[in-house]
Design goal:
This protein has about 70 residues and is mainly α. It contains four helices and no strands. Helix content is about 80%, strand content about 0%. The chain is elongated.
């Protein structure tokens, strides 16, 4: 995964704007996936939504709305 992320980072800085946009979009998706995994791990570990929200830099309501059970 690290090589993939490094490759995407290089592509995101490419002179070809379409290649750079595709890479940037792929990076955003991967970061969002990783954030969801870490939030899930934090909840399984018993951490409160408020602590998770503080770590992410959003409100408790925002993190709960995005990652709370549906």
């Amino acid at each position: 995964m690290t090589n993939d992320l490094a490759s995407l980072m290089r592509q995101a800085q490419d002179d070809d704007p379409l290649l750079a946009l595709r890479a940037t979009t792929a990076l955003r998706r991967e970061v969002e996936r990783l954030e969801a995994v870490q939030v899930r791990r934090a909840r399984v570990a018993g951490l409160a939504w408020a602590l998770i929200a503080d770590a992410i830099g959003v409100s408790k309501q925002a993190v709960h709305k995005k990652y709370g059970r549906r």
